[in-house]
Design goal:
With 145 residues, the protein is α+β, with helices and mostly antiparallel strands. 26% of the residues lie in helices and 36% in strands.
Length: 145
């Protein structure tokens, strides 16, 4: 199957994205669904990939911060589709959107188990950052566009 990255344009798109974020990024740690979103949804670029049945199987978000810096957040790929390049498709799509916005670099907070993935996308560790829920080490990573 050929996967295509789409831009979330409807409330239904955002709801389906939120469900995947919750399932992958929050539910395994018994965190509420409200932690899978924030007040910047409306001003951010949400990208997603669907399977042949229209189910969201990968997603990521780009928000514009200050100083021509973007931030990728809420990257998630359904466990049955991990390792098939969907995350890289989402990251590349968001980077292209960032270039159109005139961003000069993108930062992200990578979970420890995702550091190698982001390195393979051209990101470099800037510093060890925070420990989410006292359990998941994060690293601030950056890439110049």
């Amino acid at each position: 199957m050929i996967f295509t990255v789409k831009l979330a344009n409807t409330a239904g798109d955002l709801d389906a994205i939120l469900q995947l974020r919750y399932k992958i990024l929050r539910e395994p740690w018994q965190q509420p669904i409200a932690t899978a979103t924030d007040a910047l949804e409306g001003s951010s670029i949400n990208a997603f990939i669907e399977d042949e049945h229209g189910n969201v199987i990968a997603c990521g978000r780009l928000q514009e911060n200050e100083n021509k810096t973007g931030q990728i957040r809420f990257m998630a790929v359904h466990q049955h589709y991990q390792g098939q390049g969907l995350g890289k498709l989402i990251v590349a799509f968001l980077e292209e959107k960032g270039k159109v916005l005139g961003l000069e670099k993108i930062e992200l907070q990578a979970r420890e188990n995702a550091v190698d993935f982001y390195k393979s996308c051209g990101y470099n560790i800037k510093e060890k950052s925070f420990l989410l829920w006292g359990l998941i080490q994060h690293y601030l990573m950056v890439k110049k566009l």
